Input
Amino acid sequence: MLVGVTKEIKNHEYRVGLTPAGVAALVRAGHQVLVETLAGSGVGFSDDMYASAGGRVVTTAAEIFATAEMVVKVKEPQAVEYRQLRPGQILFTYLHLAPDPEQTRGLIDSDCVAIAYETVTDNHNGLPLLKPMSEVAGRMSIQAGAQALEKSHGGLGVLLSGVPGVPPARVLVLGGGVVGINAARIAMGMGAQVTIMDVSLPRLTQIDTDFGPRLLTEVSNRENICAHLPDVDLVIGGVLIPGAAAPKLITRDMLALMRPGTVIADVAIDQGGCLETSHATTHQDPTYVVDGVVHYCVANMPGGVARTSTLALTNATLPFVLQLANKGYRQALKDNPHLANGLNVHRGKITYDAVARDLGYAFEPFAA
Output
């Protein structure tokens, strides 16, 4: 198969879909790989490294979209990219379609085969291609939140750890999944007082067993969230319904309960955000203020630590890339139902139920 890797063009996105080692693995398996020039430059992978791995470096993304059978990316295609997709061409990347009707329509119109990292599953009911970036984003959310709490960034002027004689910051984490656990771990490591909320009692029991009394647990509901908002310093939104738009756990009226300068980092922003007042921001301009509350809503948080993120992501994605390349997408999806769960758009049809439901399309199950 002819596989293409383009340079990411989203604002301050430096990750790359394949490392030179990944290219070498594909070449050893008998495939050809086209890599857009400078695709890996932001994470320290030069064109020469890709060429040494057996890839062919090309000057434009247009050449890749025009010739590759499969395009491997990191972020969802921008308009200039999805307009170049061809009928039957495989796109393997993060998509996050539920809050993005324009991209969804673009993929439908392209007649491509769009497989989303974030809905590929595993034998443990997990999301193995979303997990590494959720780990990164959860940990980064505390770094970002701590900085946003500084007075010069519009925050309360609170140090997460406190100091002797001054209490630590209070952190509320919404969602006990991968993002939430990683956020809680870093916040506790920095000395903050942390409460984590989830709708699942078994999940809260497991968290309590793993972390003990230092990490406080509560059932997530509007009343419990509202009870915390007047005193909390930093809120982390880490909820996820796979493939679907994130539920709005904090509404506009609830912001009135919070002190001016409180910070909310909405890690669910890729799926539309879990705040009614959330809208996507960039690393270039990461925060904005609504009713005195600082919102951090960067939609590609892991791109801020692009080298770590690229290595973590490609460790997880490469086996699936090889399956698609070795077998072709139809056989690969037939042989691996977990990979088949990643198929969101197939030849003009929406093949993921949550996306179809949220955007008002007919759901068309894929039949290999």
